[in-house]
Each structure stands twice: as C-alpha cells, then as structure tokens.
Amino acid sequence: MRGLLIAGNWKMNGLIGESVQLIKEIQPANNEKIEIVLAPPFTALHAVNAYLSKDDSGQINNFFLAAQDVFWEEKGAYTGEVSPEMLANTGCYYVIIGHSERRQFFHETNKTVNKKIKASLKANLQCIVCIGETLEQRENGNTFSIIESQIKEGFANISSEELDKCIIAYEPVWAIGTGKTATPEQAEEIHQFIRKKIEEIFNKFSSEKMKILYGGSVNPGNVEGLLSKEDIDGALVGGASLKAESFNKIIQAGENTINN
Ligand code: PGA
C-alpha cells in the first residue's frame, strides 16, 4: 500500500496572515497513511512552518510543508532565486518542480527540471515532479511521447535510490484551472503508462513504490472517483485548496478511499 498524498498548491495566493489562517482551518487526516502537503507562496513559508512546528514532534499530525519552486544553484549571484538549502532551512520537506505554469510562463524545460531535482535531492528535499501534456499535444496524439520524454529527460542520471525520494504529479495542462478534469479512466491510463515507464527505466520495485498524483481541477465532487483508481495515489490541488471547506472535503475523500 503506497498510501495517499493530498497536496494543496496555493500558487501566488495568500498574504502571511491569510496563509496562517488557512492552515489553521485545515483538518488533519485521521489516518497515518495520508500525508497532507501544503505549498504556500515563498513569503508565507516561514510563518506557516512556525505554526506547524508548534507541535513537539515538529509536525502537526501528517502535515508537511512544500515550496512551489526552487533554483538549482547552492548560492551566489542569482537575484530573486531561492536555493534548496534555503527551503529546507525554512522547514520545507517537499518541493514542487516543473509545474506547467513554470514551464509555460517561465520557460522551464525538462533539462532545468532535471537540474532542480538533482539539487533538491542533495539538500534532502523530496521532489514532487509535475508532468503532463497540453491540449494540442493530446489532440495530435502525442500524449504518450510527451509524457515519456518528460520522464526520461526530467529524471536523467538519477539513481533509483534518488528516485525513491520523488513523486510524480500527472497534470494534464488542459485540466489545470479550467474546470475540465480528466476522467478517472483517462487519468488512470496515463498513470499506468507512467508506472510502466518508471519500471522500464528504473526497476519494478521503484515503480510500485512511487506515488503518482493526479492534478487538474480536482474538487470535492470528482476526487473520490479519481482516488478510487489503483494507480492514482493522491491529488495535487490548486483552486480547491484555497478554501479550507473544499480542501477538507478532499482530505475526507482521501480518508474514505483508504478506509474502503
Ligand atoms: P487546479 O490546479 O486544481 O486549480 O486545476 C492544479 C495545479 O495547478 O496543480
């Protein structure tokens, strides 16, 4: 059993006070097989971490902090960038890498994704690596080849031990923020393909162990259908993670899935 991971990607939303308020309203899952990952903007990481660290164990239940991006160099003259070590130092356990908005608006490529993964692993961060096809690529029948090259190039020269610290988030670009979700069957087809590729490139053990999340207009109404699929091990949630009410329902759906 791989367990489930429900992640909220807050994107560029939330001043410090709003972020702390939101985290206060999110209900921890009553099941240790569910991890809840929260990715506030950089500016709120410290404050959210301070709230999470109030607990003696250093974590409130199963909440983990994530950054939405990272730079690959350790330090130096890179105005505006944030290093993996800085993120770890701020309390991040996870980092999201290669989100389609980074690829689309900031020209990130599979090569830069690869550099970011390697640098983040060095700093002991766990990577949530986003891949997914655009509408045009899907309509032209290129979904599988795009996914394959994103995996091959993104994870180039990464060992299977390192891969074990990575999670893949399949996020079809046409489903992000559009209200159009992939059907559970469409998503499962790609998740199976991803797992098969991981097995071919790495090994069966790593492929079976790896969590593969789905992202793209996940909401309380569609999440249970998605999570019920064998190869969907969680969700990366954007819009619906900005309100505690809807995010809590998604966490609850995760609990229902684990309990069934
Ligand atoms: P969405 O975003 O849930 O708002 O579609 C998902 C994501 O971009 O990770």
Name the CATH homologous superfamily.
Aldolase class I
Into which percentage range does the β-strand content fall?
15-25%
Q: Order of helices and strands, N to C? A: EHEHEHEHHEHHHEHHEHEH
Number of strands: 8
Description of the molecule:
The chain has 12 helices and 8 strands. The longest helix has 18 residues. The model has no long low-confidence stretch (mean pLDDT 95). An 8-stranded parallel β-barrel has the order 1-2-3-4-5-6-7-8, surrounded by 5 helices. The protein has one domain: Aldolase class I (TIM Barrel), CATH 3.20.20.70. With 260 residues, it is of the alpha/beta class. The chain binds 2-phosphoglycolic acid. The site of 2-phosphoglycolic acid (PGA) has 13 residues, from strand 8.
Note the main attributes of this structure.
single chain; alpha/beta; TIM Barrel; eight-stranded parallel β-barrel; 12 helices; globular; binds 2-phosphoglycolic acid
Short description:
The chain is α/β, with parallel strands linked by helices and 260 residues long. Helices cover 43% and strands 15% of the residues.
What is the fold's blueprint, element by element?
Elements: E1 4-9, H1 16-25, E2 34-39, H2 42-52, E3 63-67, H3 84-89, E4 94-97, H4 100-105, H5 110-122, E5 126-131, H6 135-139, H7 143-154, H8 160-163, E6 166-170, H9 184-201, H10 204-209, E7 212-215, H11 223-227, E8 234-237, H12 244-259
2-phosphoglycolic acid (PGA) binds at residues 9, 171, 176-177, 215-218, 236-240.
